[in-house]
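Quick entry between incubations.
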Amino acid sequence: MPALAALGVLALAACSGGSSGTQATGSSTGGAQAGGQTITVWHYFSDPNQVALMDKYAQLFEAAHPGDKVVNTYVPYDQMDSKVVAAAGSKTGPDVVVFNGAEAATIVLGGGLLPLDDYLSAYPDKAQLPPSTLHVVNGKTYAVQGYVNLLGLWYNKDILDKIGVQPPTTMAELETDMQKAKDAGYGGITLSGLPNSQGEWQAYPWITDAGFTYDNLDQSALANGFTRIQNWVKKGWLSQEATTWDQTVPFQTFAAGNVAFAENGNWQMATAKANAKFAYGVVPLPISSTAGIYLGGEGEGIGTYSKNPQLAWDYLTSSYLAPDGQLAAASLVGSLPSRLDVAKNSQVTSDALLTPFATEIATVGAAYPSAKIPPAGVAAVQTAMGQAWSAVIGGQQSPQDAAAAAIQAVKKASNG
Amino acid sequence: MSAPAAPVARQGGRSGGTATRGTDARTPARYRRRPQKRLVFLLPAAVFLAALSVYPLIQLVRMAFSAVTAATLNSSWVWTGLTNIRTGWASGQTQQAIVRTVVFVVIVTALGMALGLGGAIALRTRGRWSGILLAVMVFVWALPPVVNGSVWKFLLGSNGLVNTLLLDLHLRQTPAPFLYSQYWALGSVAFVSSFAVIPFNALVYRAALLNIEPEVFEAAAIDGANKWQEIRHIMTPAVRPTTLVLLVLTIVYGFRGFDFIYVMTYGGPGTATNTLPFLGYLQAFVRYDFGLGASTSILAVLGVLVLAVVYARSIRREEADR
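Done. Structure below.
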């Protein structure tokens, strides 16, 4: 039956006409040497800094396990879950899966991950891992997180100096600053309006600032949040083109130097350092204390059909969960360590760019995805909300219609 | 003459003189077995076709009438009849996707056929420039859709080449929202999709045009026909059989349109470019409702199957006419 399922998925893929597949990245590691064992890691990173981090993890593991090798394999972001599930159907798959933590339930329900409870019970540093960084589905832990990622407000200090303002701390200040930036010939803000989970991730702070949560499903509050963002487009602060941008493009646009603000993540630090030819900084998103910013990041789990699950766990503990690995993620990519002890390391606490993100974690950090959404409905809710977000930015729907459609889709997904 | 002799004569006729050996008593039986031997050579292709096309198609149909999610994909599928189809229609997304698919196919077909024929007429003559243009067209045709789509996404962006030209030439005051307006996006993606099919159509049309005897054009020139009359009275009738085949192929290509939407708009803004193939993709591989995605994809498959039958019949008719 699993083989039949895999063929069914193949047929469906043929109907969609999708192209691409897996391809080996330029990992520093190769195949296994004679006598050594190989750990296969599936990931979706293409950014050079993130690829460098994967190579660093491989080096850490290989240093701890001489003779064993890591093979990092790139899988496109939006194909990761289906490929892991399809591989599990044919009783194959990687040793380690690095995936969007919010989608853990999808892979777990598809039989793609092994429970980690036994490994975690025997792990001496388990107390250093906060519960919010462990992905639990139906009472079992299936993935860990080596770091936390979240959104903040990046600003172009050169532009703010020219228009004579300080980084905003309230929504009113942000909107005033964007108008001043526009009057001076600059763009106001960049963000992603893509109609998928990335759009929903970026929308969440603004719609929760308007009073919406997945607990209350307040349609008028959601419409108010959408109205605000549509006004940003109408006033020329935000480009309608955001509907075609994933999270990488808006930051590249910001880094080009003609936009005052960017709603983007801590993982963009290396990109900013490499590309921005102006003074820049980060402040917490100017949202209310009752609003939320998702605490995201990749989940790391062991594939159900890993040939050597114990060695795969050793890979995780010597890379993602090791203090050296977490500090490497902070320095190479700008990720916030998930271990409590490493989060207090001076390398992290003395970083002016990381501090605002750490503040957000403490004040407005929100579980991603919302615990209110049942595991099987997460993907449908994220897609529906992302489409609504995109529709109001692109002007396809009024804020009221988009909110009504999104609420209806969320209710349907939540009720199964 | 007895009945067995007839096949011998026919086979002998085809193989050029082997009929003289037909006097051997064993020969008729050997020749009668030959068709079965030929079938053996078809076997590998048939096996591949059954394994990689027919069987997955059967699974797709099963999936469309079953409840299949990420949780149940690798276990037994519960038969739910028309539930998936009803769910798709009740959401209204299927109907909207059908309308968008039809618009998309019409644009792709119209532009692909017209510009394909135009390109073939321009390339009919042999020479250096037509050779260079031909090479460029083959390059465009061979370009992976992801690369092609990414380049066009860049060209059609607010700061892309097309908008820069429009602004510099004062044809517009603001950038044209090619990919992010609900009114422009579908047309823009359809245009790019047709751009990718033009080289193929032009090459096929060119082959048909090259079959026209030069004497026909010489006679037309003697009679005083101008270029337009040559196109209307000589070329267009000559490529009519090719047009029918190409029309079917282009419509099928349009129905399958997915890559450019995936790369350029991801179905957006909102749902403005959600055609049937892309909606099926979202349902199956983003929401992981494989049953619902299969039921949507079945609609696209049905459209393609109907056209495949038309294509097969037109091919058979064309061969019969030769």
